[in-house]
Amino acid sequence: MKKNKNLPIVLGMLALISGITAVYLSKNDPSPIPTPSPDNFQISCEKMGATWLAEFNECESPSAETKLFQSECAKLGGKYFDCASPCRHDSKAEACISLCMKVCKF
Questions:
Q1: Are 36 and 76 in contact (CB under 8 A)?
Q2: Residue 27: how many CB atoms within 10 A of its CB?
Q3: How big, in percent rounded to 5, are the helix, strand and coil portions of the chain?
């Protein structure tokens, strides 16, 4: 039986490539939206490109992609509103622009 002298070199190269790939992927992977908890609703909201309103415990966005916003809201355990008023928290507003705010309420 003939021994393959290149086998240790090939195995070493594969190990090196695997290690480099693992490091690259771990550093270049976009961080996932955190597991839902009251402590990270704000983080999750901001990762979706929306605004966290701590006083009202809700996440809002006039321009977020609807399906993504709605599915992330459900994952976080919130209640989704497709067209909330931008003046919903201003009881003294006399006029309000016609704009739908996507809202995830907790």
A1: yes
A2: 7
A3: 45, 15, 40
Q: What is the pLDDT along the chain (106 residues), one digit of tens a residue?
A: 566 666 666 555 555 455 555 545 555 555 565 566 666 889 889 888 899 999 999 999 988 788 889 998 998 889 999 999 999 999 998 999 989 999 999 9
CB distance 22 to 29 below 8 Å? no
Please state the φ and ψ torsions of residue 85, each to the nearest 5 degrees: -75, 140
HSE-CB of 82 using CA atoms within 13 angstroms: 3
| Stated pTM of the model | 0.62
